[in-house]
Specification:
Helices cover 78% and strands 0% of the residues. By secondary structure, the protein is an all-alpha fold. The model has no long low-confidence stretch (mean pLDDT 92). It is a multi-pass membrane protein.
Length: 126
């Protein structure tokens, strides 16, 4: 299997793993839900986990890959405020935790670009 054939499956695996952790360990996600969002943070945690699982399925399937990968790029942009909140909230934590929170911020750009690349390379494939 070539690198271009593996890339969508790896992205789908990342999304699926993240989606599962939203249900298996929701408290860690509840804590980074921006307070400006209405309702209970747990609802947002479960909703974002469900979205990640749906995106994973869409990216894994060649027929829906392009649209799902573009939606994934938008999703990564949309969750950026939660990563900012985490970085701000964790600024006084031990160095390792602070570094992990800060490290998530620049990681969003490669994730967006990866999803866009999967969408572009997924065009016309069935």
């Amino acid at each position: 299997m070539s690198r271009s054939e593996r890339s969508p499956l790896l992205l789908a695996g990342l999304l699926a793993a993240a989606g599962v952790t939203h249900f298996a360990q929701p408290r860690q996600y509840d804590a980074i839900i921006p307070g400006a969002l209405p309702g209970d943070p747990r609802t947002w945690t479960y909703a974002s986990g469900a979205v990640e699982l749906a995106l994973a399925a869409g990216v894994a399937l060649p027929r829906t890959r392009k649209v799902a990968a573009l939606a994934t790029a938008a999703f990564f942009v949309g969750v950026f405020p939660a990563n900012v909140k985490m970085a701000v909230d964790w600024r006084d934590r031990p160095a390792r935790q602070k570094a992990a929170a800060m490290g998530r911020l620049p990681l969003q750009l490669p994730l967006v670009l990866w999803a866009r690349s999967v969408a572009k390379n997924g065009e016309g494939r069935a």
